[in-house]
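Field log, afternoon session.

UNIT: design team B
ACTIVITY: writing a sequence onto a fixed backbone
BACKBONE:
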C-alpha cells in the first residue's frame, strides 16, 4: 500500500514539475532591460555619427581656410573649434538633452 501511495505522489510531483516548466516566466525585466540597452546603443551611435560629421566639417573648414589667406595657426584653431562644437553636440545626443 505504501508503494502505491509513493508512486502516486511521485507521479503527481512529476506532473506538477512538467506543468510548471511549460508555464512561461514573466519577461518584463528582460524586455525593459533590452529596450534600455537598445536606447543606449542608439544614443551612442547617434553621438558617433555627430562626431564623425564634425570631423568631416572640420577637415573641410581647414581646407577652405588654407585656400584663403589665413595663417596656419588660425586654420588649426578654426578646425579645433568646429570639432569641439561637434563633441558638445554629441554629448547632448548621448544624454538626450
Amino acid at each position: 500500500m505504501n508503494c502505491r501511495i509513493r508512486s502516486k505522489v511521485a507521479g503527481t510531483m512529476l506532473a506538477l514539475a512538467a506543468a510548471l516548466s511549460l508555464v512561461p516566466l514573466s519577461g518584463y525585466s528582460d524586455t525593459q532591460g533590452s529596450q534600455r540597452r537598445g536606447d543606449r546603443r542608439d544614443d551612442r551611435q547617434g553621438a558617433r555619427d555627430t562626431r564623425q560629421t564634425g570631423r568631416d566639417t572640420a577637415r573641410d573648414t581647414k581646407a577652405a581656410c588654407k585656400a584663403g589667406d589665413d595663417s596656419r595657426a588660425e586654420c588649426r584653431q578654426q578646425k579645433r573649434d568646429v570639432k569641439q562644437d561637434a563633441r558638445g553636440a554629441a554629448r547632448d545626443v548621448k544624454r538626450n538633452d
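LOG NOTE: The first helix runs from residue 2 to 22.
NEXT ACTIVITY: expression trials, pending approval
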